[in-house]
Amino acid sequence: MTPAAVSLVVMLSNALFCLGVYGLLARRHAIALLLAIELILNAAALNFVLFSRLLGHAHGQAFALFIIALAACEAVVGLAIVISLARSAKTVFADDVNLLRG
Amino acid sequence: MVVLIAALAALVLMSALWVVTLRNLFRAALSLGLVLIGVAGLFLVLEAEFLAFVQILVYVGAILTLVVFAIMLTSKVQGRAPDVSSRQPAVAGAVSLTLFALLTAVTQPIVWAQAPGVAAVPLATLGQQLVTTLVLPFEVVSLVFVAAMVGAIAIATSTRPPER
Lengths: 102, 164
Prior knowledge:
The complex is a heterodimer. Chain A is an all-alpha fold. In chain A, 79% of the residues lie in helices and 0% in strands. In chain A, helix 2 (30-55) packs antiparallel against helix 3. The radius of gyration of chain A is 17 Å and the shape is elongated. Chain A starts with a helix and ends in a 14-residue tail after the last helix. In chain A, 61% of the residues are buried. Chain B is mainly α. In chain B, 74% of the residues lie in helices and 0% in strands. Chain B has helices spanning 2-21, 25-45, 49-78, 89-107, 123-131, 135-156. The chains are: A mainly alpha, B mainly alpha. At the A-B interface, helix 1, helix 2 and helix 3 of A face helix 1, helix 2, helix 3, helix 4 and helix 5 of B.
């Protein structure tokens, strides 16, 4: 791996993370927020795999594996919440859910 | 290799932009599929074949299917009137651009030189590490999986009648 290739992947990971943050801040739909979180988690996993390759260490890949597994859990629970929300509160927009606001 | 990485990066960036900007949520979810496939391609370039296949299987195969199902289940609730984007995309864009500038300013001056003689991690090493040194996080992830599954079923099934 040349340093140029490494810094390209680091840059891509940064951009992916920032696009995810933009999505989290700008969107209202709860499922769109989940999609943005997947972008952020992918950016982190990409960095882990990159530095695992760079240092020849297996732990980076193992943690990327854990990230993918936790992303699956997060998606399952998040979508369950969205479906329950659509059923009980009749909305899918995150800023319409203000039941607990004081 | 740099050319291949740049092509995959362009694919990933373009579809990630679609994920966060497209009004149609279904199309945004399909663009997320493109992002995930592009990242899996990058994993292949980085010689992490097992992770690339896990990414395709778990993300594109399972998570994306779930997301598409959830979008179809809730599309009636969403209706046509409300907009997906919020009122402050400008603020969100400023925040994320600032964050990107900060991260780039920190990471770009560093020259990531590879130590000589470092080979890619073989799959056998990864498997052995997962059941020896990393067995505790591995088991914790399994436990989290079970908890998430039970929790999701408990949240999504309603004992009350749906109509009030």
